[in-house]
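Colleagues,

Please find the record for the two-part complex below.
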Amino acid sequence: MSADDLAGRAPGRSQAGPHPLGGSADVPAGRAASIPSAGADMGRLLAQDVVIDGETAGPATGAQRMEPTHSPRATLAGQPAVPRELPRAETVAAPDLHREVEQFLFLQAELLDAKHWQQWMDLFAAEGLYWMPVAPEQTEWEGSPSIFIEDKSLMEIRKGRVSHPNAWSQAPQWETSHLVSHVAVESNEGGTIVVRSRFHMMELRRDAIRHFGGRYRHTLLRGEDGALKIKLQRVDLFNSQASFDYVLQIWV
Amino acid sequence: MNLPSLVEPDRVHKSVYTDQQIFDKEMENIFEKVWVYCGHESQIPNPGDYYAVTIGRQPMIMVRGADGKSFNVLHNRCPHRGVQLVGNLKGNTGGAFVCSYHAWSFHLDGKVRAIPLARGYEGTAMNKSNPDCNVKRAARVDSYRGFVFASLAAEGPTLSEFLGEAKIAFDDMCDRSPLGEVEVVPYCHRMVQQSNWKFFMENQLDALHPSVTHQSTGISAGRVEKRIKEEKGAAPLHYHYLSTFASSFEQWDGVQTINFPRGHGILKAYMGLRPQDPDTLEYEAVLRSAYGEAKTEEYLSRSIHHVLVYPYLSVQSPLQQLRCLRPISPDKTLSEIWHFRLKGAPEAVYRRSLWYFNLVNSPATMINADDLENWTKAQWGLTSNGGDWVSFHRNYGDDRVENGVSYSNHGTSEVVMRSQFQAWSKYMQGDAS
């Protein structure tokens, strides 16, 4: 290791002139002498004002001076941070469609909270999917992990499991309460309606409460009877990559 | 704490699961001595890529070295005032770590790189030539087939010696790739169990519990699987993943466990993962062209459901899943759950194993939901004065020991726990050899 390393010089970086913050070993030795000695006279000492002026266009300061390329927020190399989608204002839904969609989402949440599993499943089209990806950047479920990816057959297994008399984990008191809001109809084309909303779920298990929040995106179809059906419900849990204290037993 | 009196050949005292002093001793004598899994090489492909990991009670950083080849495992602690050097679980630190408090910076191998106003240390004990200015490194770092481990003890068995027979976990996983390598799927599920880490390790090779604990899921899945078979002639393999949990006691008793001296162990296969569908046949053809007929058969006919590396790892090599325990306290344990891809294998093989990862190992698991519930109640049950001992008497006296390896003719034998506690006792009495 060279002396330059220890002085914090970045290779190839100009080191011209002392920095106003005096942040390095390469500050001329004489500069230290400009700080007056304290002496015994407190009054005189406190009268000696040091002003760090706000020169901001100078060389890098602090951590950037020690390691110009360092950022504590950098992602793994080669894995760029995924830009977040800019939400669009709802523009496409007439008031009656907006209300219909909203009521549909509220009903779905209420069916979950009341544990009407079959009626909840009936809201899905025959080929409908419930999908909770692990991370927001995921765009497909077949080739990358999911927290939930269930078609109606897998939903039936989950329903059967929690309804079984020996579903041990369902023995303790267990309830959920959902709020759904921020409903925005994003598109309505060719009979397919895409709706964005936010949810908040509180879960009570024994005496403990957990919180889950995030975003739903429903892709809805209109069935032959005119009723809305879910083709795809994508659930982006905002705490999907935090550690889970216990598991999710049922759909969120 | 009188350790020898807590572990008898066929039962253990409840305090081994509940006592804080015993937990501390476990951290000191086991987790902070043995080789602990840090991660897979493919998690940190580029210089400066890092993951924060915990070894025992020690916050550490696994980082790819500046040469792009080496791995360093460092204490996540600035030698100046003790502040953690990285505050995130993962990232890229560029060419150096920089402390957020006073900007001490460090090379990726932990050596001090720069100190602001370094002349302020002239004449003090903490000058640049003092190794105390470097970030402390794990005593030993090594890898096996791409899986990186570190030991905080300078002395002791090598990684290869420590893994011993359990090396088959990584061999079996990698050999299933025509290139002999796996790469990590970059999402880690993290789940906390409100119970002692030992419940997890015991449960992994406990063949009696599935048809009890997982009855609800197994029966429900079996019903749906049957209906799909009737309608379509065949059901996808992942229904079978779930329905086999509800096999009978007698069937489970036929699934053998193999128990090794260091506490490692194997639960033999029971799911029948070699169907003759076109995807499997294509995959086997790829393997045969890479390894030839004999090797391919050897690799694919290994009877493994999962392999335990005691005291903290469960590797389900045939489906490329890995679960790693990070104990937090006597009654709290974090598990990190990873999935891997077989390099060079057809995508369909990955997708098939992904179903197991999603259905069994995700945070919405229909299986571990009931395991975690059991262990929580076990943890609470063991605080009771209704009894002091935990029984491991099933098939006691019926074990077969060959070359230090314990077998039982009964898959449901509690030889698993007896064997794990033999290893545990040895470690706890200071013998890490």
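Residues 1-33 of chain A have pLDDT under 50 and may be disordered.

Comments are welcome before we finalize the supplementary table.
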